[in-house]
C-alpha cells in the first residue's frame, strides 16, 4: 500500500501532485504489466490469490482511512491508493475484463485525480488552506468551479457516464468471473469511494458560508477554466464512449493472457 503518498502530496505543489497522481503512481502498475507478469508468469499465477487478497484489503482499509481525513489533499491521495488497489485486483485475476478494466482505470485515474488536485489547488491559491472545515458554501461564490468540482467528484465516485465508472465496472465484472464473492466484495467497496468523495464535496461546496473569507473568493479565471474543461471533456468522453480506449488494448491483453495461461500448463 502506498502509505507514503498522502504525505508526499501534502508537501508537493499543485503541479507536483498532478504529475505524481496522474503519471508517477502508474509506474508500478505498468511495471507489473510490462515486466513482472510476462517475465515470471509462474510466480504471478502462484501469488495471484495473495495479491488479490491484499488488493481487497487495501481498497477497504484505505476507504475507511479516507473517510476520517480533514485535509482535502490527503483524502484524494488516499482515494488514489484505493483506486490502485482496483488496478492490481484486475491484473491478477488474469481474465480479459479484469486486465482491460485495470488499464482503463489507470487512464481514468490520470484524468480524474489530476483534475481533483487541480481543483484543490484552485481553492488553495485563494484561501491558502486545504482543511475541509475552513470551507463551506463555495457554490455561492464560485459556481463554475463548483460545477467542475462536482463532475470530477462524481467521476472519482464511479458515477455512470464518467470515466471512473468504466474501469471499476469492468474490474468488478472480471472479479465476478473469477470468483463471485471476490466480485461481491469489490462491488461493495464502491460505496466507500462514493462516501468519502461526496462527504468532502458536501462539506466544501454546500451549506452556508461560515468563513467570511469564503464569501470573498473569486470564481475560476479563463486559464483555470480551460485546464478543467479539457479534463472534463476527457472524463465524459471516456465515460460515454470507452470503445476507442479498449479497442487498442485487445491484442496486447490477449497476448499477455495467452502467455500467462501457457505457464499454467
Question: What number of domains?
Answer: 1
**Share in β-strands:** under 5%
The string of secondary-structure elements, in order, is HHHHHHHHHHHHH
Number of helices: 13
Report the radius of gyration as a whole number of Å. 19 Å
Oligomer: single chain
Give the tally of β-strands.
0
Main sheet record: none
Average pLDDT, rounded to a whole number, is 88
Percent range for helical residues?
over 70%
Q: Give the termini distance in whole angstroms.
A: 32 Å
Low-confidence stretches: none
Alpha-beta classification: mainly alpha
What gross morphology would you assign? elongated
Q: Can you characterise this structure?
A:
With 265 residues, the chain is mostly helical. It has one domain. It has 13 helices and no strands. It has helices spanning 5-11, 14-22, 27-39, 41-67, 72-91, 96-127, 138-141, 143-157, 163-178, 180-205, 222-240, 243-247, 250-264. α4 (41-67) packs parallel to α10 (180-205).
What can be said about this structure in brief?
Helix content is 78%, strand content 0%. The chain is built from 13 helices and no strands.
What topology emerges from the helices and strands here?
Elements: H1 5-11, H2 14-22, H3 27-39, H4 41-67, H5 72-91, H6 96-127, H7 138-141, H8 143-157, H9 163-178, H10 180-205, H11 222-240, H12 243-247, H13 250-264
Question: Key features?
Answer:
265 residues; mainly alpha; 78% helix
Amino acid at each position: 500500500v502506498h502509505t507514503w503518498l498522502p504525505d508526499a502530496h501534502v508537501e508537493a505543489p499543485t503541479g507536483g501532485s498532478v504529475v505524481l497522481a496522474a503519471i508517477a503512481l502508474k509506474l508500478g502498475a505498468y511495471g507489473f504489466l510490462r515486466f513482472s507478469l510476462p517475465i515470471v508468469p509462474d510466480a504471478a499465477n502462484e501469488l495471484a490469490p495473495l495479491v488479490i487478497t491484499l488488493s481487497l484489503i487495501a481498497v477497504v482499509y484505505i476507504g475507511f482511512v479516507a473517510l476520517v481525513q480533514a485535509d482535502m489533499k490527503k483524502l484524494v491521495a488516499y482515494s488514489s491508493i484505493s483506486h490502485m488497489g482496483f488496478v492490481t485486483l484486475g491484473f491478477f485475476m488474469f481474465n480479459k475484463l479484469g486486465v482491460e478494466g485495470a488499464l482503463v482505470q489507470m487512464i481514468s485515474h490520470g484524468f480524474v485525480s489530476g483534475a481533483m488536485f487541480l481543483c484543490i489547488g484552485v481553492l488553495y491559491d485563494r484561501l491558502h488552506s486545504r482543511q475541509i472545515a475552513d470551507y463551506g458554501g463555495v457554490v455561492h461564490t464560485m459556481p463554475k468551479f463548483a460545477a467542475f468540482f462536482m463532475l470530477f467528484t462524481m467521476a472519482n465516485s464511479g458515477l455512470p457516464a464518467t470515466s471512473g465508472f468504466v474501469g471499476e465496472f469492468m474490474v468488478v465484472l472480471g472479479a465476478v468471473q473469477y470468483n463471485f464473492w471476490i466480485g461481491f466484495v469489490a462491488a461493495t467497496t464502491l460505496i466507500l469511494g462514493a462516501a468519502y468523495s461526496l462527504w468532502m464535496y458536501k462539506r466544501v461546496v454546500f451549506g452556508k458560508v461560515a468563513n467570511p473569507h469564503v464569501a470573498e473568493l473569486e470564481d475560476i479565471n479563463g486559464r483555470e477554466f480551460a485546464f478543467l474543461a479539457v479534463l472534463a471533456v476527457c472524463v465524459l468522453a471516456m465515460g460515454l464512449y470507452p470503445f476507442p480506449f479498449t479497442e487498442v488494448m485487445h491484442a496486447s491483453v490477449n497476448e499477455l493472457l495467452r502467455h500467462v495461461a501457457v505457464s499454467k500448463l
